[in-house]
Write a structure and sequence with these properties.
- By secondary structure, the chain is α/β, with parallel strands linked by helices.
- Helix content is 26%, strand content 24%.
- It is built from 15 helices and 29 strands.
- The strands form seven sheets. The protein has a ten-stranded parallel β-sheet. A four-stranded antiparallel β-sheet has the order 19-18-21-22, with no helix packed on it.
- The longest helix has 23 residues.
- The chain is elongated.
- The protein starts with a helix and ends with a strand.
- 44% of the residues are buried.
Length: 559
């Protein structure tokens, strides 16, 4: 694959036509809670403050949903503090304005529920090794890990860190991930800063090395320390909920490639992250490498991650904050080319750092995604290395046209081999049968109910045929159940402009036309052709009344 990289770089100008939309693609954003940088701006000091804080989050999630994002990486552990009521660490300052103060609700539980309502996954983002600067530790007081467990903490360049070489650090972090995984219906746990700090060669761990080094070379011992932590946390999480995705965000350059240097900043040599080993050993489900680089500091290293993914997921983190004139003032074309490239080499999606710059539409990045790259929904790929058995196909379809013009759909519950509940994806198309491999036909994802009332956003988006699939917690999707066929409950368009054409109907006596709210607007005797120029623009349903007084739905009018 390396032989094609230069060619790829030359053929990805920003004006290329957009690559076809994939059905499976991770579309993620880092939602930072440290200092309320992305959320929350409103403090939960009282009932009205809680309401404003929750509404603020819901507004963010609504906008992400509208842009067809499917994954939120929510910062859950910040710097030795949490956004949920933990028995291990105290509440974060950003929730209320005061370290340790209870916000009056559980922000993590609320965020999970709201993400799931919108068919999005929530991954608890854990800042792993840092324990806080001097101010943060002081504010946490007796509740800080530095005070409660001083022997696993090291002070380095004015900041406190957990000591990866002390075996008790692994136990401490294990308690945190077990607490989160057990208590919350999360979809993933995402480790940030699971490494040594910058300029780590001087990290003050000589005493730990003497005690636990066991004759290993120092740098390899440090790499092994981080890998041992990763291995333990992966096993802990999977033992509780095997469907929870385990990921991290390593430094964007693993190490020097054959042709391109990392310029002194890489995961393997500088901060002792052997992240490619984690994928190949199977102690990670995904990596979100922080690839906040331009040009040949991006493409060769993205390709290197792809070539060494071990059949797990790699989702490059794109540094959209550098679009800001206050940062490096990148042009939008830089990000556009990177998205094209990640799709061309078949990486597993994109992640954006950070959410404020995304929703602020910095340099038009959100518009670009909505108009060109994320024009259809996408599903998170199935985690087949954990489970590859799809649930049973739903059964017993029912469809009913309601008086208001909506369609009520029902089906029988699907069964998964795990015995756990499934969710459903609804597809709609004007052609039969529906191609469920084409994401443009996805109408709704992650429905938890076996009943759904369909109403198009606008009348001219009304679909004629529908199908539903079931998906388990690992992302395995069943075969589709057709909710209607070409000969059943069809919704043909009956008009061409101002002319209505009706099918031959035995015993037909009259025609009733109703508007989108179900109100009757016109009744006349049956005829196969009818001028409808007097109808206002809009969406209508047409019903034929037979001589026995029975009403039969005939189709629709769109003007």
């Amino acid at each position: 694959m390396r032989t094609i990289i230069i060619t790829l770089l030359l053929v990805i100008p920003s004006f290329l036509p957009v690559i076809s939309q994939p059905k499976y693609e991770i579309r993620a954003t880092w939602l930072t809670t440290l200092g309320g940088m992305d959320w929350p701006r409103n403090k939960a000091g009282n009932a009205s403050g809680i309401q404003r804080q929750q509404k603020e989050l819901c507004d963010i999630l609504d906008r992400l949903k509208a842009a067809n994002f499917n994954t939120v990486l929510l910062q859950t552990r910040l710097r030795g503090d949490m956004i949920y009521p933990s028995a291990i660490e105290t509440f974060a300052e950003s929730l209320t304005g005061y370290t340790g103060r209870n916000p009056g609700y559980d922000p993590l539980a609320f965020a999970i529920e709201e993400c799931h309502k919108r068919g999005m996954e929530l991954h608890a983002w854990i800042v792993t090794i840092p324990a806080g600067n001097a101010r943060q530790v002081k504010l946490q007081g007796r509740n800080s890990v530095v005070q409660k467990n001083r022997k696993i903490c090291k002070l380095y360049k004015g900041n406190w860190y957990l000591d990866p070489g002390n075996p008790e650090t692994k136990e401490y972090l294990s308690r945190i991930v077990k607490e989160i995984t057990t208590r919350y219906d999360i979809d993933g746990i995402h480790f940030d800063y699971i490494r040594y700090p910058e300029q780590a060669e001087n990290f003050p761990d000589k005493d730990t090395y003497r005690k636990y080094g066991k004759g290993k070379e120092l740098k390899q011992w440090r790499r092994d320390n981080i890998t041992d932590i990763v291995r333990r946390l992966y096993a802990d999480i999977k033992a509780i909920k095997p469907w929870v995705k385990v990921s991290s965000s390593p430094i964007g350059k693993y190490r020097d490639t054959n042709r391109y240097p990392s310029r002194g900043w890489n995961a393997y040599h500088v901060v002792y992250q052997d992240a490619q080993k984690w994928l190949k050993e199977g102690i990670h489900d995904a990596l979100f490498p922080m690839m906040y680089f331009q040009g040949n500091n991006f493409y060769p290293f993205a390709l290197d991650w792809k070539e060494n993914c071990g059949n797990r997921w790699v989702v490059p983190g794109l540094g959209i904050y550098f679009l800001s004139p206050r940062e490096q003032n990148w042009s939008l074309d830089e990000i556009v080319r990177q998205i094209h490239f990640t799709r061309q080499v078949k990486l597993n999606g994109q992640a954006y750092f950070r959410n404020q710059f995304l929703l602020d539409n910095t340099k038009g990045v959100l518009d670009e995604l909505k108009e060109n790259f994320y024009t259809t929904p996408a599903l998170v790929p199935p985690m087949t290395w954990m489970d590859s058995i799809a649930p049973s196909t739903p059964t017993l379809p029912e469809m009913q046209l309601l008086a208001n013009g909506n369609i009520r759909m029902k089906w029988q519950t699907s069964v998964d081999d795990s015995g756990r509940p499934v969710v459903y994806h609804l597809y709609g198309s004007d052609t039969y049968p529906i191609d469920v491999n084409n994401p443009k036909y996805l109408l709704e994802t992650h429905l938890v109910s076996t009943e759904y009332e369909y109403a198009p956003g606008v009348p001219w988006q009304q679909k004629r045929y529908f199908a539903v699939t079931a998906t388990d917690r690992f992302g395995n999707e069943s075969a589709p159940l057709e909710l209607n066929k070409a000969s059943e409950t069809d919704m043909p368009l009956l008009n061409k402009g101002d002319r209505l054409y009706l099918p031959v109907a035995k015993d037909a006596q009259s025609i009733v036309i109703r508007n989108a709210t179900g109100e009757e607007v016109w009744r006349t005797g049956y005829m196969q052709q009818l001028a409808i120029g007097q109808l206002s623009s809009g969406f209508y349903t047409v019903h034929i009344i037979n001589k026995g007084g029975q009403s039969v739905f005939a189709g629709t009018i769109i003007k």
